[in-house]
Amino acid sequence: MHGSARRAFAALLTAGVIAAATAAQAPGGPQSTGSAAPQASRYSAPTNLKVLPKDSTGQQVHEIMELWSAALGTHCDSCHAEDSNNPGPNGRPQLDFAADSKGMKAAARMMYTMTEKINVDYVAKIDSSGAPITCGTCHRGHLGPEPFAIPPNVGLSAPRVLTPTHEGQLPQ
Ligand code: HEC
Ligand code: HEC
């Protein structure tokens, strides 16, 4: 596939988020009422992006994070560690979003790269390919995707859970 087409399809992954962020900042929107100057984002610019587009704004990263949390049925602190030197207004430590100390954050980076690769290298090459896969395609609101059990009414004697062997992978 041509380089720019690859990038365009990869951009689909975050396009919805960027469109939502742009709409929120549109002139005449509720946020601009009573203020002539464009409002500064309440989210500071990211400093440690390794897989998301480096020019993402704080607002865009925040919306992606909300989507990931919802797709995995989890919260920010699954992937982001507390900073004990930085207590919040309630006295509890705030999260250090730029820190890389949690293994779950590293796993999420790998998962994002995998998801993008599946879309660009495979899904986009299917004729009339429409919807890219997302974290939710597999996770469906859970940290660990649940095994898919074939329902009993399709000719098998009992519900069966597919294993990698059934999916065509060679037995170890
Ligand atoms: C499933 C894991 C996961 C969850 C849940 C998650 N994040 Fe993240 N977050 C990441 C990863 C991975 C990155 C780094 C992305 C990169 O390297 O491009 C990141 C980056 C960030 C950054 C940018 C930090 C910087 O300065 O570079 C912010 C801010 C952030 N997350 C906020 C949040 C918030 C707020 C929530 C909850 C609503 C949240 N995250 C939930 C994995 C997660
Ligand atoms: C093609 C299916 C698929 C997609 C798409 C996918 N994941 Fe996963 N993910 C998995 C599987 C399978 C595991 C391993 C689950 C286990 O160990 O029980 C996993 C594990 C993880 C884990 C580690 C969970 C743990 O308990 O240690 C994180 C974090 C994660 N995924 C985040 C993401 C994020 C964020 C996205 C989207 C950017 C994503 N995943 C997209 C299939 C997927």
Q: Which structural traits does this protein have?
A:
172 residues, two-stranded antiparallel ribbon, extended, mainly alpha, 4 helices, binds heme C
Strand order of the largest sheet: 1-2
Q: What bound compounds does this protein have?
A: heme C
**Fraction of residues in H or I helices:** 25-40%
Number of DSSP strands?
A: 4
Uncertain stretches = 1-6, 15-37
Strand content: 5-15%
Shape: extended
- Oligomeric state as shown: single chain
Describe this structure in words.
With 172 residues, this protein is mainly alpha-helical. The protein has a domain at 3-30 and 51-140. It is 36% helix and 8% strand. It has helices at 3-25, 58-72, 103-121, 135-139, and strands at 82-87, 93-95, 149-150, 160-161. α1 crosses α2 (58-72) and α1 (3-25) crosses α3. The longest helix is centred in the N-terminal third of the chain and has 23 residues, at 3-25. Residues 1-6 and 15-37 have low confidence and may be disordered. One heme C binds next to α2, α3 and α4.
Short description:
The protein has 172 residues and is mostly helical.
